[in-house]
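Q: A reviewer asked whether we had any structural model of the full assembly, not just the individual parts. We don't, so I'm hoping you can provide one. Inputs are below.
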Amino acid sequence: MTIDSHEEGRPLDLASFRQQLATRKGREYWRSLNELAESEEFEEAVRQEFPRQAVLLGSLNRRDFLKVLGASLALAGLTACVPQNAGKILPYAVPPEALVPGKPVFFATAMPFGGYGQGVLAKSEMGRPIKVEGNPRHPVTQGASNLFMQASILDLYDPDRAKSVTNQGQPSTWDDFVAAVGAAAGANAGAGLRILTGTVTSPSLAEQLNAILAQFPQAKWHQYDPVGRDTVRAGAALAFNQPVDVHYRFDLADVILSLDSDFLFREPGSVKYGRDFSARRQPTQSDTPLSRLYVVESSLTLTGSNADHRLGVKPSQVEGFARALAARLGIDAGGAGGEGVPGENWLDALAADLQSAGEAALVVAGERQPAAVHMLAHAINEALGAVGNTVVYTDPVELSPVDQLASLRELASDLDGGQVDLLVILGGNPVYSAPADLSFAEAMPKAGTSVYLGMYADETAALATWHVPAAHFLEMWGDIRAVDGTVSIIQPLIEPLYGGKSPQELLAALSGQGTASGYLMLREYWQANIAGGVQPTPSAGEEQPTPSADETQPAPSAGGDFETVWQQALSDGMLPNTSLAATSAPLQVNLAALPGAAAAPNESLEVVFEPDPTIWDGEFANNAWLQELPKPLTKLTWDNAALFSPQTAEGLGLQEYDLVELSLRGRSVTAAVFIQPGQPVGVVTLSLGYGRAQGGNVLAGTGFNANAIRTSEAPWFDSGLEVRKTGGTYQLVTTRDHTSMENRNLVRSATLEEFMQHPAFAQEGEGELPSLYDPVQYPGHAWGMAINLNTCIGCNACVIACQAENNIPTVGKDQVDRSREMHWLRIDRYFKGSPESPEVFFEPVPCMHCENAPCEPVCPVEATSHSAEGLNEMTYNRCVGTRYCSNNCPYKVRRFNFYKYVDDVSEPLKALRNPDVSVRSRGVMEKCTYCVQRITAARVQAEVEGRTIQDGEIRTACQQACPTNAIVFGDINDANSQVRQLKETPLNYALLGELGTRPRTTYLAKVKNPNPAMVEQA
Amino acid sequence: METTKEVPVLEPGHSYVSVTEKISEIPLAKVRRMPLAWFAGFGVAFALVMLFLFAVTNLFIRGVGLFGINIPVGWGFDIINFVWWIGIGHAGTLISAILLLFRQDWRTSINRFAEAMTLFAVANAAMFPILHLGRPWLFFYLMPYPNKMGLWPQFRSPLVWDVFAITTYMTVSFLFWYMGLVPDLATMRDKAGNIWLKRLYGILSLGWRGSARHWHHYQSVYLLMAALATPLVISVHSIVGMDFAYGLIPGWHSTIFPPYFVAGAVFSGFAMVLTLLIPLRKLYKLEDFITQRHLDNMAKVMLGMGLIVAYGYIMENFAGWYSADPFEIFNTVDRYIGAYAPLYWGLIFCNVVAAQLLWFRRVRNNNLILFVISILINVGMWLERFIIISQSLSKDFIPSSWHLYVPTVWDISVFIGTIGLFLALIFLFLRVFPAISIFEMRELVHKLKHHGPDGKSPGPSAAD
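A: Here is a predicted structure for the entire assembly that you could use as a starting point for your response.
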């Protein structure tokens, strides 16, 4: 069923694009390919006038919509099946400490993500966790967050979570499980015992695993993460002959080269990297000169979008580029002269720029690239003198770094050989996520007994003998190390909703400890390992990547008893001073001896796999917030797609939404075609995490399974991809526009040089418009917002933060297709330049809170009105839903409840809601409120304390989440406020200011820092 | 002008009795003597009413999401239909009030019908502001009613002006129509054979006995009501026009809207009267009363209004260009070549090109062509509202928000359903009330008899 007007089915015409670009006047931004060929698109739309009518009756069932809305209607009843502790309800005689009804309590904890801990601060309202923020004291997150942290709260309450222990699919109990598995584990000294985990950085879990391995010497521990860092490990091992972790200091880097690294999104430290990177993208701060980012990448990524110079290449060509660059920098890299390397014209200017930056240069190799590229990056950094400045080496944070693919391969062959009696899988859903060539789904049932600890009844749970519901991180005790080594404490905010267990508790059962308390285990572990003050440092130099004894060395007591340290750790969410110290790691290899890269033939299509920009590796596939979140670059929702460059698609005769069969090494998967500007020619990108078969109602029927053609030999890219049209089409849904920017001055940008010459370029032709009326005075506070386009990296964290804070519902694919998504804050994405290598701009658009708001006078019932502090307020109770306000809003930031989108049926979701924000029902208009509930809370607090509200005291949800401080909110009447100072910079401009709306939200124009030498060259 | 003078407003040979008989026999006919076409027409209309009720029930249960509206395009068929029906509802008052004040004889045999049509069209129109609400059960928030919280509607909003304009217009139209009916209801009472019919018409005729006093009062009140109703013809659609002129969306933000909407309304109202009357006079053999002269005159009014509307289109395009505002220019160009261009050119064809045929007498005298043109104008005016409302909204300032509006089956059901409701009411009206004013026709007979045919007579004032 199509209910949209996507202009589809038009063959690409690159010549016309180019002609359009050549003849374009004025502002040259464009948003999608269709707009580049305006006239054709219009004709197409004409031909397809009322394309929906034929299938209108199909909209009657709105299956996808209902899937989201009432996803769990059937399952909701099951919640009643979980036996609850019988107990009496009594009022508190002595209320729990710090519990004031209506006042939130914050707990510092950590979210495990890809094996690393992200320090978070979870907000609890009357015992219900409702929001996750970054922990300001945590050295990695520093109060910022990413979309996964923000969305994790929805997983906690997901009605689709597994709710009971099952044995062969039949409901069972934890006690039965403990009895059964405790007996099975010890058989044969553990000869048939295999434990599969993700990347482990938890000291207590590692100790437990090691204890089990000691107890059952024949047992084996395997690790596998679908988005693993094998290449990084291997690269370091190659370069230094020892496991080393590499950390980057983007705040110290003047010139950055990314070799296919999406460090703003994909690295475990991306939140910190984003913050550091943005600190050097502030053109108005003269003390911090702008850094310059070069990106060579094989897919358009967030990092590439933020580059000053971006080069799209085939993934196999990156190594050649790195070798050629190394050669230019005087490193003997195996005789590579840079002949036939794409981006040859870059090399001289880039090498010169890197060299002049010296120790402030930084070369980052991506996880997608093989070890050789990492090694080359290490060598270049070493040669430039960056090591110790922008590059820092530490001992590995992982407690047992192994080659995870090899580890999984070994497990699969053991399973195949029937050597496994008891397989214990601690999360990760390997049946779905294992590379196709390992045939894990066929191998796993060959284990005598298999145990799966997972949050959902997913593909792995279906094959497992025992499925134990996993605890969400907000339900369990644990510890985990952050990417810098900081030991972060995971503490629960709520009893497990469905009796979920932590990995530690499951392992305790395995080792015969029965039902051990996760809390006591953790406490005992740390009591034994620290005595006030801690400096756990894993010993370096593990030659053999085999499971080894826990390396954590207790440090001598720094004074104070354990209880004090422990309480402080719980309060801070981490153990102090546990980040890893820099080590020196001398380069130990001869680059010249490296074998040359086997370059793939140029004509061959290459495929790139990447973690999905919204649902990662499938871990968040059942998270409706993330599913509905428009992916930052494609703006796709609810699906992934095979991304083709316009030129490649044209060459293959493909059109958008065609279904194609992608064949690689004898395996194939069917996927829909999406044409992505900036995608390198000859490269097809397919993101992971979609095409799931089981695991919830939200993920059902979304996307295409990249793992079906992903192999353990080439987990990130491969050549020899064959594409065959199946003849079918598939309705992909995006939130992008359909036609051109029409030369509208919506995103303003300049190069650094232009900015130096015309600092006020963004304000050209703007000024106060004449008015017949006296300006309205705002004598008290006057709230305003400044959005810095220089630092916005387009990461989407703000969108999800807003959704979590403001009880924003999801609407489903069908409704997104009808342009009815509810996000109060959207991120507009613009392209500039050619479709092959466009520049990308992001522009977050919340409500502008216009002083002359066009929405206000048109509302017949005065449901939207202006506050004395300049907020444009919605009174939901009064709204009758004429939609006149939205029609008259030039920014189109108002969102309407066309149906009853809120799911008030699913019991668990009721606990998710922020009690400070009304839940909107059907027929009501809503929009960004500047988080008025936070303003009110601060006002109350200030009045209680008899003071005025301080600058920075109120932070909107989007601002708080933003890893790059791109959003600043505050009082524009306060001359010293940060927002006022930003608005006084010459970069400040109002979106559509010429309409006289006097928006309170303004933007700081983007200043790019291209290399003048390369600009001239171009 | 020669022709129109030659064709009388009433075919010769009619007496008071023949006029009364001919008109009153339509509602008083025995069921078995009713034309089959009535049953067929009413049957179809009734089925559409059922469709309407089904669609509206579903709409109330599930929400306005059933419609094809989305975030840039918050208004679709709902408001298009509203404006369209309101426009159609303009002919009645214009014919009965303004032409009465101008003492146009030819209004006599069509005013009753036109007024009834107006009433039904406005009733249809008045439903849409409620149907389009997200929370229709709270429609009374738009009324200024006293309440404990001291909340009033937002008097700055044109939608509130709409509420006042429409309720006033509906009330006045109803009173005017009903007042005109009173003497005829008395005639019906006197002619009805069935005792229950006698009682029904008796109650409705409010004790009319036809005394000189009655007539004296009646005539003065009728004239006053006409004077009262006249400004409403201008005000209602002006205010509807302001709904859009008040907005800042390119394509809406235009000062020409109020007069241009009024002309369009009269244009479509006359078209609808013609659409209905041409088959009707055939069906009930009323060619003697509704003569070619009437059709000709109405066609001329349509032509005049059509020219004003065409001028409006020209000025809209000119203003789009003259504003030098990129958003306005884009919107204007988008109408020419954008996704909705076929609809735009369709409306130009229907409202501007097709209407030019009315310059020709032969076209005006050919009922088939006139009927086709009147339908085209109805379609064209509907398309005009579509372009103004939905096309303007679909592509406004920030391209990232652009989205086309495509109606769903529910949009169409409600639209067709209201047409069914309108026709069903028309058929019921024909069955229950005299469709032509009997007493005014008798007056006309008198005038023609004693003062000669139109044009050569001393004039109505001399007759009094």
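A: Points you may want to mention in the reply: DSSP finds 33 helices and 40 strands in chain A. The mean pLDDT of chain A is 84.
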